[in-house]
Specification:
697 residues; alpha/beta; OB fold (Dihydrolipoamide Acetyltransferase, E2P); Rossmann fold; seven-stranded parallel β-sheet; 24 helices
Length: 697
Amino acid sequence: MSILTAMRPESLFPLFAAISTLKGVGPRVAPLVERLAGPIVRDVLFTAPQSLIRRTATTAALAQDGQVQTFVVTIDAHLPPQRSGQPWRIRGWDDTGFVTLVWFKGHGPHLERQHPVGARRAVSGKVERFGSEIQVAHPDYMLEAERIDEIPAIEPVYPATAGLPSRTFRKFALEALSRAQPLPEWQDAAWMARESLPPWREAFERLHGPEGEIDLSPMSAARRRLAYDELLAHQLALAQRKAGKRAQPGPRIVSGPLAEAAEKALPFRLTGAQVRALSEVRGDLAHGERMSRLLQGDVGSGKTVVAMLAMADAAGAGFQSALMAPTEILARQHYETLAPPLEAQGLAVVLLTGRDKGGARAAKLQKLADGSAAVAVGTHALFQDDVAFKSLALTIIDEQHRFGVNERRRLQEKGEGVHLLAMSATPIPRTLELTVFGDLDVSRIDEKPPGRTPVATRAAPTPRVPEIVDRLRSAIEGGAQAFWICPLVSESEKVDLRAAEDRAADLRKVLGSRVGLVHGQMPAAEKDAVMQAFVDGEVGVLVATTVVEVGVNVPNASIMVIEHADRFGLAQLHQLRGRVGRGMRESSCVLLYDPPLSEVAQQRLDILRRSDDGFEIAEKDLELRGGGDPLGLKQSGFPAYRLADPVAHRDLIAVAADDARLILARDPALASPRGEAVRTLQALFDWKPASGLNDAG
């Protein structure tokens, strides 16, 4: 028995058994169940029905087209197919008329043996009416008439996959439910009463035995109860992880004259939001506990300047800092922003990327090892084994969700109690922030620096592309530069790539050779060369297949054209738009769409035209889109909930976070009776503070 199993309460053992222990889940079916639900019985229990079928008893005379209905008929005749491709038909009679039952694809003589002429059968399925003929194709049920009670009036429909129909999965779900024992109540009794929430076991009974559509709604009492369980388990793990990080000592860094001089030398004054964020960061650094903070802000809101002043604080206290970015072009951009003001204060800054080789690389590594370089800026190259720091105290991770947990950790482990400042330009709505960044303290920069040119945003149907290309030509001739985004919209990367190549070729016919193309299949060096040519102004229009390729600051770029804009999340569109409007030129963003636009798509594009506040846009997108992944959250380290819908249940997220804090404040060791029950909850969901799952910091 593993340590993990030994720590799990015995009451949960039946739920953590392999799915192969369920009756009927043999070697052929097990992989299908695992793909649909997961490898253990609990995963089957956690798989909710998606919809339900209502069956009404009726007669041939009263049958309704398109409804799922149940008949009791006497078999009148078998009508075998006359030629290949025709179905096998059975004609039934119920004293009010005929009902024809139809089977395609090879069903045949065995139907005659199972359902001989004269036999009475209860039949249920979807009714199709052709003139006066009533037809049911492939009936869902066909039983002896006395067994009609076995045909459910309300039948939950589960996700299905080839070889595993919904009805088969339902049998497994009901068996999984039978293995779920009543457990000690971990929820607060007063909260349960106020919200009219059922006990845990009863909630699952309602989930798998719905009596109507209301029971399938995320707002039903049973669904809210189970969602709250999952959210509380997650928030407890995050709160424990956060407390664990806070308990680690970190280098004490107090702001001093070096950072003050660096700030005074800036050609602009910090915005109020930057001042607030910087003071929060400095409060953490001076505390003597390891900082784990996220700095959130729109593209161009000035996160890098805050990071730079924190680095100056660290250098002033005798420590080193490292800033890691996901791509070489971004690392170079950060280096060009950070190096001049820091070097003006006498601090050496090195740029380390995969491109550094031989003697040049060795010289940079020596500066980091002996402490003569106070700041390192780079890519994944920073956490390689041969990179050593003399006194690393602060790591800054840009677009932190683009790095794996282990990658972030490897960099932090190059020093003792290293502080972490993560940066993200992906606007997460406040209501969801706790689920993604619950183990971090969060600072927001929600103000734009003065002088940013507003970006005029408009939507245009695809047929107007020639007109847009014509305007683009005039702008390029006038010295402007433009991005043209061809998103990944098809199932095949080859098709997407061809679309981008075709677009680049079409633009070259009109604009000449100053059209560049970058896409995910290009070698990194070739991609960087095209990007650099764009930065240097040699390329006038950059056609790109992905959002990732355009995380670059080109102040002269003033036009952004986005094809199939209606297929992007609003947050992505907003980030793309943020790549222009960084210089003095009047800037514009054109959102191309294939007409006609749906009402929701129209509203979403309207929001973009009206607002340039990423957080407001994210909240509105959430309201409009509801479930699914409207904000590209899966790419932001968003937890994969099974029972909670982060949109429908967002009111419960903050409550769960507060409850988790309260539980741990009163009973940090979870030793009280409720604490013991809460341990069972955590074991049920398998969310542990020590696991790397969704570790934001």
